[in-house]
């Protein structure tokens, strides 16, 4: 297997012009054959560092499927919870309010009515323990159940559920090779030159809410190498990401184009218009993404640091993701 020249040209033009500081692409087929491409830089300011396959990317919202949804399904298989448990079963402090009646299934599929969360100023609330205690108690304004609203807050609450049922902080969860919460900064890809933190973020989580919680959180905080994320894609494509029943549950359509862990292929989605109807994937704000097309027998990950040195950029990351997916599927699918 080789990366198509059309895909290489797309990415090389952006990294050569430094419109995109760096990009790492990995593709895997149904028999486990792989191809990878690494271009550009891990950092441009205040110093220049060349990107290598060993660098750790801040995966941002890829944390949602690769950690939180996966661990909720594992806990389900251990009998520690059920997907249709109301939140109040595991966070009793939410009892007696509408929030406590929303289920874990609804939170996973972004259909609980819990608001997006946006830029919650959690760093102003206090230390991580104070934030964890306050999150379930806040009088959140909830929407209707069933309407899909992508929600960081919903996954923050799921992270708290996991910590309660396992008795361990997320930072202590065992992770697959190529995934970590705490990368070596010397081997980490730089993200934003953050004005309120006063430095270029490298080896520290870019997401403000996860940062306030100390790094690991239900919605963000995970880091991964190209090989590590591609291995996740391979297990999703070929089996073994979870046990058979749990993996089927993770990928089963739920509502509004969502599964319990991923977004389904639909018009305008990030994987491109050549994907089959059974395809699914997820993206991260920092410029990361993972996609799987079972019908075409292909899975891929595109990891970039598109927020470096600033999130205000001229690059249309969604258009790039679609173009990469389309060129891969046209030549390899």
Automatic annotation (TrEMBL):
Alphabetized UniProt keyword annotations: Hydrolase, Plasmid
Matching entries from SUPFAM superfamilies are given as:
beta-lactamase/transpeptidase-like
Domain Beta-lactamase-related stretches = 9-320
Q: Does the keyword Lyase apply?
A: no
UniProt xrefs under Pfam families? Beta-lactamase
Instruction: Specify whether Cell inner membrane is a keyword of the entry.
Output: no
Q: Give one GO molecular function term.
A: hydrolase activity
Which InterPro entries does this UniProt record tie to the protein?
Beta-lactam-related, Beta-lactam/transpept-like, Diverse_Enzym_Activities
Please report the name of this protein according to its UniProt entry.
Class A beta-lactamase-related serine hydrolase
Task: Name the species this protein comes from.
Answer: Deinococcus wulumuqiensis
């Amino acid at each position: 297997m080789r990366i198509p020249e059309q895909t290489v040209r797309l990415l090389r033009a952006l990294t050569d012009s430094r419109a995109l500081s760096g990009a790492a692409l990995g593709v895997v087929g149904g028999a486990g054959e792989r191809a990878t491409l690494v271009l550009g830089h891990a950092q441009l300011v205040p110093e220049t560092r060349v990107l290598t396959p060993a660098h750790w990317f801040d995966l941002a919202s890829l944390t949602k499927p690769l950690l939180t949804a996966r661990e909720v399904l594992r806990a389900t298989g251990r009998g520690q919870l059920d997907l249709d448990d109301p939140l109040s079963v595991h966070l009793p402090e939410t009892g007696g309010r509408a929030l406590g009646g929303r289920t874990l299934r609804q939170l996973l599929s972004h259909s609980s009515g819990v608001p997006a969360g946006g830029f919650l100023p959690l760093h102003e609330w206090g230390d991580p323990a104070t934030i964890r205690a306050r999150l379930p108690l806040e009088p959140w304004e909830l929407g209707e159940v069933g309407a899909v609203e992508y929600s960081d807050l919903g996954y923050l609450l799921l992270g708290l559920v996991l910590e309660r049922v396992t008795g361990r902080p997320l930072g202590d969860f065992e992770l697959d090779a190529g995934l970590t919460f705490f990368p070596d900064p010397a081997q980490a890809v730089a993200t934003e030159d953050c004005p309120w933190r006063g430095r270029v973020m490298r080896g520290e989580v870019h997401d403000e809410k996860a940062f306030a919680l100390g790094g690991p959180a239900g919605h963000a905080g995970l880091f991964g190498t190209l090989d590590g994320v591609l291995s996740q894609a391979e297990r999703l494509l070929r089996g073994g990401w979870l046990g058979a029943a749990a993996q089927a549950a993770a990928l089963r359509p739920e509502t509004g184009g969502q599964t319990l862990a991923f977004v389904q292929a639909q018009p305008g989605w990030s994987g491109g218009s050549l994907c089959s109807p059974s395809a699914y994937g997820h993206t991260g704000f920092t410029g990361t993404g993972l996609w799987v097309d079972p019908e075409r027998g292909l899975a891929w990950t595109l990891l970039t640091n598109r927020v470096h040195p600033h999130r205000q950029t001229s690059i249309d990351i969604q258009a790039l993701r679609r173009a990469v997916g389309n060129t891969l599927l046209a030549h390899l699918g």
